[in-house]
Amino acid sequence: MSLAQRWLRTPIGVLRVTASDRGVTNIDRVAMKSNRVARQSSQRGTSAAQRQADRAVRELREYFAGKRTRFTVPVQLEGTPFQERAWATMRKIPYGRTMSYAEQATAMRAPRAVRAVGSANGANPVPIIVPCHRVVASNGGLGGYALGLAMKRWLLAHESRA
Questions:
Q1: Which of 45, 68, 129, 136 has the fewest Cβ atoms within 10 Å of its own Cβ atom?
Q2: What whole-number distance in Å separates Cα of residue 162 and Cα of residue 147?
């Protein structure tokens, strides 16, 4: 699989976006100085992978600018069938809204699988686009977030301002 990578400066740090010909495969936060972002703004892949990565970066920029509430860029997710169901359920949570882990498990028709849902969400390779930050604890707490609770708090606050 040929992959293209792009680096994007955001209010929450530098994100690395990786895409294949079929869609975004990974988004992660990286520690990188601004001058390195400029030098490494692009890593080659096929032209189709580059288009997917460029589209994801454009949509993420719009999201952080408050101009996008829904992502349309394709994602290429590979996980267990349970993980893929969890990720599909998260994609249905509207911008600015949240769902508890228990509600997500119930929506997946697996109401006793709350911990498994949390694990599946933590394994989400495409945060923000697959909005695992919108899943919170039943008691109103943030729960967990693979990219850190400060980032989850920021994303939820960003969406509540809309």
A1: 68
A2: 22
